[in-house]
Amino acid sequence: MFVKKDEEENSIQWNLKYTGISPVKSHSEDDLPDPIQQSKIHSNRNINLKLKKFKRFDDFNLQEQQQQQSQLNRFSPLSNLDPLASKTTFVTTTFKNNNENFQYETQASNPRRLLTKPNIPNIDINPYNCDNEVGDHIIHVGDVIGVYDPNMENLTRYKSTPSMTSRNGFKIMDLLGKGTFGQVIKCENLADGSIVAIKMIKASEECMVPSFMECKVLQRLQKQQRLLGRNNNSNNNNERNDNQDDHFINFLEEFVYKGHLCIVFELLGPSVLEVLQSNKFHGLHWDLITSFSKQLFHSLENLKMANVIHCDLKPENILLKNNGNPANGNSLKIIDFGASCFENQTVYSYIQSRFYRAPEVVLGLPYTSGIDMWSVGCVIAELYLGIPLFPGQSEYDLMVRIIESKVNVDAIPPKWMLDRSKFSTLFFHYDPEEQKYTRLKSIDEYNIDLKEWKATNNEIIIHHLGYPRDVEKPGKKYFENSDNFCKLILLHRFHKLAHLTDIEKLDVLKKRWIFHKFLQKCLDIDPFKRYTPTEALRDPFITGKWISNYDFEADVDFKDFLTVEKQNIFGKTSLSPSKSNSEKKKGTSPKSQSHDHCTKLENLQL
C-alpha cells in the first residue's frame, strides 16, 4: 500500500510525540514479505509483553486517562466493575451524581408493579374507590394492608382472632392466584418479618358469608387438632403417627381492610397439580401415591371427626408443606375451605369441581362426608393416571363417563338414588312396564328433554347445574380403555413395560389389580357402600399386606382377566428373553413354548 506524503509526515509526528518511535515505512507491493516464509519465521516465536512497543499506550497521556477514570469512578461505587455494569447496577447512584435533586423513594412517587387487572377503580363497587369492576381490590407490590388503627377499627381493620400478631400490617410482595371469591397474595408480616399468604375476599355479601364460614371451620379444626395433640401427649405416645400431623393449612388470623375480609394463612409449597405437571402428567411413583393417599385419608378422618365436609377437594386444593422434593417425606396440606359446611348444616347443592363431583351431588340428593371420599378417590386415580379420571364437560357428560367406565358392577345408580333424585328423568330413561329407570339417555334424548327442563324448571337448572350447554355434544375420550375401568388401570401405559420379563409383568399386574379393587371401593356410586376413611386406611393396598396375604389363585376375576388379555400383556411370544435363550439351547420350538406358557397362565401357578 502507498501512503501520501502529508499523511506520512503526520504519522511520524504523532509517533514521535507520544512514543518516540518512528513508524516503519510501508513496503511497496514488490517489497511485501512472503506470507509463507513469514509464518515459518514467526511460528515458534514467543511474544514478550514486556517489550517497549507493547507498552506504548500504557504511558500515553497518563494524566488524561486518570482524569477519565476518575469521571467513571464517580458513577460507580465499585471501581472494579466496567462502566456499563456499574451504571446499571447502581443506577440510582448514577442519576444522583448527575442530578443532585434526584431522589429515589420506594413507597412514594416511584411506580410500583401492578398486580390486579383491570386496574381502573369503580366507586360504585366500593365506597373507598379502591376496587375494580369485578370487585377485586387493586393492589401493587409494596402496598401495606391491614395496619391496625384503633381510631378507625370499624373502617380499616376488624379483628376477631384473640391474638394481635400484626399491628404493623402486611407488605404485599406478589400475587399467588385469583378466583371467584377474590385474590391470594404473598405478604411480609411487618411485625416479625414472616412470609404469609393472605386471601383477600371480594367486598360482597355472597363472597364474604362463605369466607366467614371458612374461618369458623378452620378454627374448629385447629381446636380439634390441639385436643388430639394433648391426648397423644397424655398417653406418652412417642411414636410418630400420620394422624397426629396437621394436614390442614394453618389459619393465623383474619381482619377486614377497606371492606375486604382478609384471611391470613401460612405460606405453603406447590400444589399436587403442579407436581403432576412437573412430571409431564405421566402419573407418580407407587410410593408417592401410597404416601399421599394415607395422608388424605387421615385428613378425611379428622374432617369427619369434626363433622366438616370440605366440598371442593381437588389437586389444586392439596398443597405440599414446602418447596422440597415430594419424595423426601414432604407432607400434604388441604386448603380452600370456602365451600365447606358442617355435616348437619348442608346449604348448597351446586358444590364440588365437576371432575371430582360425586354422583349424589349430580343427582341433587342430600349428601354427607362421603362426597369428599369420592373426590379423594378421583384424586388418587389422577395421581396414577396423570390426568383426571372423569373429565366431564357437563353434568350429563360426567354421568356418561362414570357409568360407561364400569367402575361398579351396576350399570346405573341404585334404585333408591334414582327414585329420590329430582334429576333422574333428565339423565335416565324410565321404563313404565318395568317401573324403573333402565338406562342412561342418549345425547339426542337428553338434548330434547333439556330444552323442556329449561322452559319449565329454569331456576332449578341454573341453581344446581349451573348454565348447561344448549346442545350436548359427545365428550372427548382421553383414555384408550375409558369404557373399561379394569383395563384402564391394569393396562395403563403398559407398552412402556415391554422390556420386563413375563414374571415381572405379572408382579406389576398384581399390584395394579389390588389398586384397581381399592379404587372401586373408593368410587362406589352408592354412598352407603363407599369406603369410609377408616376402612380405606385398612385396605391391603394402603397397608401393603396384599403382598403376603392376598390369594391370587382364588381370585377368579384376575385369572379371567389374564386369560382374556394375555395377548396384550405378553405379546405374540410370551417368553422372557432369558427364558427364550435357555429354551433355544434345549431345542424347544417357539410353538410349544407359547402353548406351555399359556397353560401355566390358565393354571395360574404364581
From TrEMBL:
Q: Which InterPro entries match?
A: Kinase-like_dom_sf, Prot_kinase_dom, Protein_kinase_ATP_BS, Ser/Thr_kinase_AS, Ser_Thr_dual-spec_kinase
- Which residues are in the Protein kinase domain? 170-542
Q: Which domain of life is it from?
A: Eukaryota
A single GO molecular-function term is: ATP binding
Entry keyword set:
ATP-binding, Kinase, Nucleotide-binding, Serine/threonine-protein kinase, Transferase
Residues annotated to bind ATP? K199
Which SUPFAM superfamilies would you find in this protein's record? Answer: Protein kinase-like (PK-like)
Q: Name one GO cellular component term.
A: cytoplasm
Q: Cite a single Pfam family from the UniProt record.
A: Pkinase
Task: Establish whether keyword Glycoprotein is in the entry.
Answer: no
Task: Note whether Membrane occurs among the keywords.
Answer: no
> Which PROSITE patterns does the record cross-reference, listed alphabetically?
PROTEIN_KINASE_ATP, PROTEIN_KINASE_DOM, PROTEIN_KINASE_ST
- Residue numbers spanned by region Disordered: 573-606
Designated name of the protein: Kinase-like protein
- Upper taxonomic classification of the species? Eukaryota, Fungi, Dikarya, Ascomycota, Saccharomycotina
